[in-house]
Amino acid sequence: MAVSDIQRADQEKGTKAVWEGSVEQLKGLVSDRAMTGETMLLNMGPHHPSTHGVLRLLLELDGEELVTVLPDVGFLHTGIEKNIEDKTYEKAVPLTDRMDYLSPMSNNMVFCMAVEKLVELDVPERAQAIRVVLLELSRIASHMVWLATQALDMGAMSVFLYCFREREKILRIFEMVSGQRMMGSYFRPGGLWRDLPEGFHEAVQDFIDYFPSKVDDYERLLVKNPIWIDRTHGVGVIEPDVALAWGVTGPALRGSGVNWDVRKALPYSGYETYDFDVPLGEHGDVYDRFLVRLVELRQSLRIVEQGMKRIDKKGPFRSNNRKFVPPPRSELGRSMEAVIHHFKLWTEGFNAPDEEVYSAIESPRGEIGCYLHGTGGNRPRRVHFKTPSFINIAALPVMSEGHMIADLIAIIGSVDIVLGDCDR
Amino acid sequence: MQIPPPLNPVDALREQFPDDVLHVRQFRDEMTIVVNPDNIVAIMIYLRGTPGLIYNLLSDISAVDYYPNDYGNQFDGQGGRNFRPERFGVSYHIYSMLYNRRLRIKAFALEEDPVIPSITEVWPAANWLEREIADMMGVRFDGHPDPRRLMMPDDWDGHPHRRDYPLGKETIQFSFNVEEIIKHKPRATD
After folding, report:
1. What is the domain partition of chain B in residue ranges?
2. Cβ contacts of residue A280 below 8 Å, gap of 6+?
3. CB–CB of B167 and A367 under 8 A?
4. Which positions in chain A touch B169 (Cβ < 8 Å)?
5. Which of A349, A339, A342 has its CA nearest to residue A326?
6. What are A373-417's pLDDT values in tens digits?
7. In this complex, which of A82, A354, A423 lies closest to B82 when CB atoms are compared?
């Protein structure tokens, strides 16, 4: 569709697109100095290499210093929650992948947990262990992107390629397991979609042997680097009680010293049986959040190691409850009940009670929660995802007002937002 | 310092706000308390500050639309039926870090002009959560400091998450029907 078509349609209808606004629209939101022109309004628009997605920030600048930061989100809103209302529970799982696209397993997990809670579906232990291993690998992959983009934004460009090299290994593991590198939809209500393939154990073991030296590399490059310390010490400080009031969770909260991790506080999928530490920061600045995530990388690897010991090569990977989980194809030739269950699940899906549940997990960005309300039929009445990036972007002005624009880039990187997570 | 023992939130709320607790429901391991929305700010301040309750983290605010026929007088909470007097239900999920427990407070808003007092002064986290509900579901929050639309463009009409709002499947555009489609496409400035 060419620009001339839009212009012709405008001429026919007699409308003209208005591209400029006036400062009056922002009267209560920016300070009074913007009205007189003493401070400058700058649009850090949705097209920007450092905003980690399509995030629009309206900045009010006094020279280089930020007076007001107004985030404007919704550019990546794809109506996932509304779309899920039109789909059965199993078919909704691929839609959830697309929210936080850097750690898609977390979104799958929280939705599947909510469904399992709603219909009281059990998950076999082996499937729980596999879920934990893949969730932690997903956390490592997501932190790789975080480190890569934060370092890239601050000028340390070589870290970007090193991190993506590590992430490539994890994406190969995901592809081996689910067929897709990123949006695998591997977790389903009741367990996993299919059993682990040949070569999974070897691939993960290779990664476990290979990764710790890489984390050492990142530490050597950045932790005592004077440029890094200069740019991140004391920048973007958020006090712990302010962070709690603004609903900030995840490494952004733990960087301020609040010891809360959903995996420890309200464990799910067997996390209480794993041995790992939760790192805490002290000052609540960008440097502490950076250190928290670096230590989380090592702890995630620890969990992966413990999890791999519990997983047999072959075994149960999904619940046996045929009312909710389709039977394996080998049974379809022998059993009439299996054929009927298969038919019902493929045409209608399973029914969930007319109740509401809320379940939450610890995604790499914070606490992701899924509010699921069934109808008694085969489709949900309402799904709402409380995503950590949404809340963290709301808290961004608190962290960044008073700093300079270059610090704002560091802060956005440290809060680790993903706009798909924010806008859904 | 001695930590005071946890109180039962239902009993504590019934004692402090006797007329405002409309219904209590326990499902799986979650407790839902339906309250009168007019007094919700005082209820939230009470839940946040009282020793024994200390719900200090607002996890989520979600809105449900019970259209077309899952709400009304017959849904009175008796006889196995759910308690749904009005069309819009807003659920506040709060969490106490000290006692490590969650609670859901639910408030129902009328269909004609759904309005609930805003709890932004209790937890600033409610700011964007309520803005999203006001944008997508149409429930207004009285006293909200910044009631602009969040996800949709500022001049959008309608509330997409309502059940009577169409999902909006588009016709596939080819070169022979591109003019037709452009003519009928609603634009944000219409």
Report:
1. 9-184
2. A254, A255, A257, A258, A259, A292
3. no
4. none
5. A342
6. 998 888 999 999 999 999 999 999 988 888 998 899 999 989 988
7. A354
The CA radius of gyration of chain B, in Å to the nearest whole number, is 20
Residue of B nearest to A393 (CA): B128
3-state SS class at B26: strand
Q: Does residue B18 register a pLDDT over 70?
A: yes
Determine the average pLDDT of the residues in A187-202.
91
Which pLDDT does position A37 carry in this prediction?
76
> With an 8 Å Cβ cutoff, are A244 and B28 in contact?
no
Interface of A with B in 91-120 (CB under 8 A): 117-118, 120
A70 touching B (Cβ < 8 Å): no
CATH code of A309's domain? 1.10.645.10
3-state secondary structure of B189: coil
Interchain proximity A384–B57, CB inside 8 Å: no
| Contacting residues for B180 by C-beta, under 8 A, at least 6 apart | none
Instruction: Name residues whose C-beta falls within 8 Å of residue A334's C-beta, 6 or more positions apart in sequence.
Output: none
Closest CA relative to residue A413, chosen from A240, A222, A216: A222
Q: Give domain status of residue A59, yes or no.
A: no
For the whole model, what pTM was predicted? Answer: 0.89
Q: Which domain holds residue A270?
A: 80-423
| Beta carbons of B60 and A386 less than 8 Å apart | yes
- Does B131 have pLDDT greater than 80? yes
The predicted structure's pLDDT at residue A52: 83
**Residue A73, CA distances (Å) to A192, B146, B149 in order:** 33, 14, 10
**Does A207 reside within a domain?**
yes
How many domains, chain A? 1
- In angstroms, rounded to a whole number, what is the distance separating the alpha carbons of residues A109 and A360? 9
Res. B83 pLDDT band, cuts 50 70 90: confident
Sorted by sequence, the CB contacts under 8 Å of residue B176 that are 6+ apart come out as none
Q: Which residue has the higher pLDDT, A18 or B186?
A: B186
Contact A73 B127 (CB under 8 A): no
Chain A, chain B: beta-carbon pairs less than 8 Å apart: 121
Which residues 130-169 of B have a C-beta within 8 angstroms of A?
Answer: 132, 146, 150-153, 160-161, 163, 165, 167
Mean pLDDT of chain A, nearest integer? 88
A328-370 pLDDT, tens digit per residue, is 888 888 999 999 999 999 898 899 998 899 999 999 999 999 9
**Residues facing B35 on adjacent strands:** B21, B107
Identify from A368, A371, A424 which residue to disrupt to test chain B contact, counting B C-beta atoms within 10 A and taking the largest count: A371
- First-to-last C-alpha distance (Å) of chain A: 27
Whether A34 is covered by a domain: the verdict is no
CATH of span B9-184: 3.30.460.80
Contact A358 B123 (CB under 8 A): no
